[in-house]
Amino acid sequence: MEPGERVGERVYRTLRRRILTGEFPPGTRLSVPAIARELGVSRSPVRDAVLQLGNEGLAQETFNRGAIVPQIDHDQLVSLYEAREALEGMTARLATVNFGPGVRRRLLGILDEHDEVVAAGDFTRHIDVDAAFHREIRTAACSPVVARMLEEIQGQVMIAMRSTSVSGGMAHAVEDHRKIFEALASGDPDAGEAAARQHISRLTSLLRTHV
Amino acid sequence: MEPGERVGERVYRTLRRRILTGEFPPGTRLSVPAIARELGVSRSPVRDAVLQLGNEGLAQETFNRGAIVPQIDHDQLVSLYEAREALEGMTARLATVNFGPGVRRRLLGILDEHDEVVAAGDFTRHIDVDAAFHREIRTAACSPVVARMLEEIQGQVMIAMRSTSVSGGMAHAVEDHRKIFEALASGDPDAGEAAARQHISRLTSLLRTHV
DNA sequence: TTAACGAACATTGCATGCAGTGTTTGTGCT
DNA sequence: AGCACAAACACTGCATGCAATGTTCGTTAA
What we know:
The structure is a homodimer of 211-residue chains. Chain A is mainly alpha-helical and 211 residues long. The first copy, chain A, folds into 2 domains: 7-68, Orthogonal Bundle (Arc Repressor Mutant, subunit A); 74-209, Four Helix Bundle (Hemerythrin (Met), subunit A). Helices cover 74% and strands 4% of the residues of chain A. The first copy, chain A, has helices at 7-21, 32-39, 43-55, 74-97, 101-120, 123-141, 144-163, 170-186, 189-209, and strands spanning 29-30, 60-62, 66-68. The longest helix of chain A is centred in the middle third of the chain and has 24 residues, at 74-97. The A-B interface holds A 4-6, 47-48, 51-52, 55-56, 63, 76, 78-80, 82-83, 85-87, 89-90, 94, 143-146, 149, 153 and B 4-6, 47-48, 51-52, 55-56, 63, 76, 78-80, 82-83, 85-87, 89-90, 94, 143-146, 149, 153. Chain B binds a DNA duplex (30 and 30 nucleotides) through helix 2 and helix 3. Chains A, B: InterPro entries: GntR_C, TF_FadR/GntR_C, Tscrpt_reg_HTH_GntR, WH-like_DNA-bd_sf, WH_DNA-bd_sf. Chains A, B: GO terms for molecular function: DNA binding; DNA-binding transcription factor activity.
């Protein structure tokens, strides 16, 4: 007997997934009793989960009025990208130092797959492969604090991506990723950071013009 | 009748303060019933508070064994400083753009006070004034996401500061701060970011040598 | 018809109950 | 004394109760 896992943890992951996939679009009320009934658990773990989602910016709480899935407004999205630019730059810098044959191989595999996906015009898989590329770099960076913060940003960005089209274009993304890869492979931390930041800041600029 | 504030929120702030001031040193057990009895509230809001502290890295939870105040080990501290370097750099960059007479006046006031405090050798006030300088820049940066993440980092760093002496020296800190101020005032975002990052990376280097 | 009102209903946030689990303490044995 | 073991105790995590508050919807008045 060792579940070793809280019910609240499972509820948290369920709700998080539903929010990120858009099954719970912005504005959806996160009613604790309703969710508890649906999942067949009591209100306590559901409450824990909703509070945790609130801490991560995936739920917006108001006193005595419960929580709703937030809309990520333009200013918030800009701020998210400002943080993301700084942190992705740092992961690239750190990953340059830790760059090895394993990372090289995996990144090249992701890039090849990305080429195929773009050629096929599959936007959904593009999102996944894009995320995989950045995740691989985060892992190589070996900085849990930075990685955790990027994941938190990623969540809110996923919400925003459904309402605003800030995609800079799939082909452009792969191009940027190849540049980042080459900078990492070159072993120059400054180049790695610069390439990663430019990748993000291009989106931030697009965002700022899209007032 | 308008408390408009959750009991859990008050408990959270109380516990957070006790952890950050060292009243609850690392290893302290955060027993929900004990805290509830002491504060004269029920276990529910205390539980909420402890879970929230866990999300911020101010409590370490183990399944069926409750939470304790964490020790920040060396690797964790390095990762915290890596994130901090990236984010302080970004705030300085953004603050450069938003630099105005109000910010200038307040920063100069803080720097003058810092000089006095250092001359008096008051380490406790040094900590406060140091934090005030960085907070002023965070505020000027107008990026809530970046600011929030820096505050989260700040909490864990405060825990670590009591066990490891990573202080680079009070006088050196003021010197760095003046350089940052001048870079901000110059209006060059690159210079602002570079100055802020160097301030942090100096500490990171100290840390890395202090294996 | 539409707007204002109020009663019925649902939800929130805090309090408390409880089974399972971990910890501590006291006891007996070597 | 030192150790094994068990019983007593305490805590965790989930379930549920409840008063206060918020929401909804039907009814009434203009």
